[in-house]
Structures are given as C-alpha cells and as structure tokens.
Structure prediction request, 476 residues.
Amino acid sequence: MNVIELSNVSKTFTLHNQGAAVIPVMSDVTLSVAPGECVGLLGASGAGKSTLMRMIWGNYLAASGRITVAGTDVARAEPREILALRRERMAYVSQFLRVVPRVPTIEVVAEPLLLTGTPEDQARDRAAALLARLRIPERLWQLSPTTFSGGEQQRVNIARGFIRQVPVMLLDEPTASLDAANRETVLSLIGEAKARGTAIVGIFHDEAARDRVCDRMIDMARFAA
Amino acid sequence: MTPLFSVRGLEKRYGARIGCTGIGFDLWPGEVMGIVGESGSGKSTLLSCLAGHLPPDRGEVIYDGRDVLAMSEPERRMLARTDWAFVHQNPRDGLRMAVSAGGNVGERLMAVGARHYGDIRETATDWLGRVEIASDRIDDRPSAFSGGMQQRLQIARNLVTGPRLVFMDEPTGGLDVSVQARLLDLLRGLVRRMGLSAIIVTHDLAVVRLLADRLMVMKGGECVETGLTDQVLDDPQHAYTQLLVSSVLQV
Prediction:
C-alpha cells in the first residue's frame, strides 16, 4: 500500500498579466512511494522538482491528474482537509524558514506538536532535545530565529519538520548549507524516519547524501511537458 | 461535523452600485478565513453584512443552524455579545474610551450576566495578562494607552466572553510593524487555544499568510478566487490575484 500516489499529474502556469503566457512544467507524472521508502527527485534547475513537491504539499494546484497522500486526494480536497493532512500526517522541510518575527526558536520548533494537542511541556522537551541534537546552542533557544545564520535557520526548519512522527515527509535540500557534523545528524534523522515507515520525497543535490538515504531516483526529464 | 457559519448568494447594493454580490461559503468550527482585496473591493461591506451591522439585499446567513437575517433585533444583539465578537480596525470604535481598561473587559462580562465584582475583576486581570497588558494598568483609561495596547485591550474585551466566531476588520491596520508582529503572534495563540472560528478582512497578505487557513479574494464586489491560503498566495489562478500577489514589495 503506497502512501504517496501520483497518477497522470500535469502542471502549467498561466501568467495572466504577462500576455497570458502559458508555461507547461510537467505532464503525465506517475509516481508512487511506499512506507519507509525515500525517493529523490533529479533534474536541472527549472525541471519542476520543487513544483512537484509543492503539488504534494498542496500549495500548488495540479492542472490535471490525481495526487493521493496518506488517504487524502490533495488535488481535490477542501482547505480544511489539506490542513488536517499537514497537521497530522505530513511534514515539509523547505529551504526557507517562515515565522512570526518575535516567536522564540523553541516555540517555533514545538508548534507542530502543539497543533496536534500535545501538552506544552512535552512539546518543549521534545523541541529542546532536537535543537540540542542539531547543535543549536541553548542560549539561542529563547531568541527568534529570524536573525540566525542560514545554516542555523535550516536546522531550526529541520527540527520543526522532524518533531512529529508522520507517514509522509517532503525534504527540499535538507543538507544544503550544513557542516559535516550536522549533515551527519540530518542523515541519521532521515534514516530513523524511514525505519519508522515514513515515506519520503526529497531533493538532494549532495550526491553522497543521496546515495545514503535514497532508495530510488526519479529524473524529472521523464515528465518534461 | 457541520459548518458553523454558512452564507449563500449574499448581495448588497448601494443604489445602482454593487457593494458585494454572489457571495457564498461555509466556515467550519476552528477555521480562520481571510478576505483580501484592494480598497473598494467590497470586503468591508461584506464583513458588515456578515456581522449583522448592515442588512444585505439578498441572500442567506446561517449561524449554527439559525437564520441570522430572520432574527429579531434583540436576538441578534444577544448573539453579538455572546457567541460573536467584532474587532474593529480602530480600537476607539470597539472600546469605551472614558471607562477604565478593567471596566472595558468587565462590561462585556456583565452584559452576559456576571454580577460578582471580585470575580469580574479577577477575570479582567487574567485577560489583561493574556493580551500582555500589565495588571497595574487595570484602572487606567484606554486613552492613556498606546495604539498597540488599545488594540490588545479591544481583543481582550471581545474574547473574554468566550465567543465562537470573531469578525476582524483590518486588526493590525493602524499599527506600526513591530507592534503588528506581536499582535499577530498573540492572535494566533488565542485562536489556537480557544479553537475560534474567525473571518478577517485585510489588505495585508502577510497577515493572512500567518493567520488564515483559507482565503477569499474580492474584486469589484465579487469573489474571484478562493482556496487554501498558501495555495492562493503561492499559485494564484485568477489574473487579479496574480496582480495582487506580484504587487507586494519585497523587503
């Protein structure tokens, strides 16, 4: 039983204010990911790797086709159904951290657990453990991550993504700006998630990382529109 | 589960001009919907019709199984001070400026039957704390408060009676940016902890990105696009939404 199932998915962007230009991005995408499996997306810049991940996350609309993620038909679901899917069954580690400016790092990391009703102290303990494991110094935990370095922000994003155990994870270059020790930690986190049965779709430009965690690679060129 | 608030075919005209038309949606318990659009797009007219401040010319507004437009005035007023709350852009429109901060919060409690002075003061103090107003300011009038504090006081006054549906008209509109962030964080926390449903009108896309689950985009009195907030903002489908999103200045 696959947790992520895409069939005949296509995507085009129509730019109404730029002469109604229609940009086809991909067509006939068919892809399935089993529990515990990690699929890496390959392709040059602009090939649609991030676009595909966003369609699975639900912030990009598919032009046609079917996208089923942990029991939800993302291409047709109501907003509240997609939000429930994200809250309970799916996590996304993007390359950018988007937070309310003055919220302390520990709360940013704990938030996904709080949204599922975990008691505050438990959520904070779990956030603290992950931040420590990702080597974010404790004196920074009470500060907002908006002023952190790129690598620190990325680790906060990773901690936020991995704080829950979910059946589906999307990882957009999770090791991109990390030093060797932190990269190793992230690769272990990914390995542990897979061992628990999480299905992962990811973009990894880091070839060694790709070889360690990906079971399969998909070249986006196959789906060129 | 059933929707908390349902709207069908709502229309309001000002003579021959359209205020808003053809508006319909279902709001579910715990859901926050943002209404965005430029000045004159009809979003404030729509909010006034939804909240019962303005009678629409056509359409249906159902709250928790009850037809709001068919209610008598006393029934509607009772609803407005129990299950509903309305946060105005200008706190002066939602506060009584000549009454102390504690009195502003306590008045709402008394309107729903609280009589024990000690309890009222205790609840008011607790709520001032929740909106980050120091308890030693409880006897000060709102006129002695900064704009951000006034707005937080208005929120306390509105939420103290435990409403289920909150209407907000540009809640961060008149505030400077640093205060906005604080207020947004506060609102987010309150909405999550109290499981509130809310309808927020704003022209600020950053505000809806952080607060709203879903969006309605209005232009010329009509809804041109709806959907999950980040889907509408990241992959807008309608020409007007694309223009709106691409017009935001990057900092």
Q: What stands out?
A: Strands of chain B lie at 5-14, 17-27, 32-36, 58-63, 66-67, 84-87, 165-169, 197-201, 214-219, 222-228. The mean pLDDT of chain B is 92.
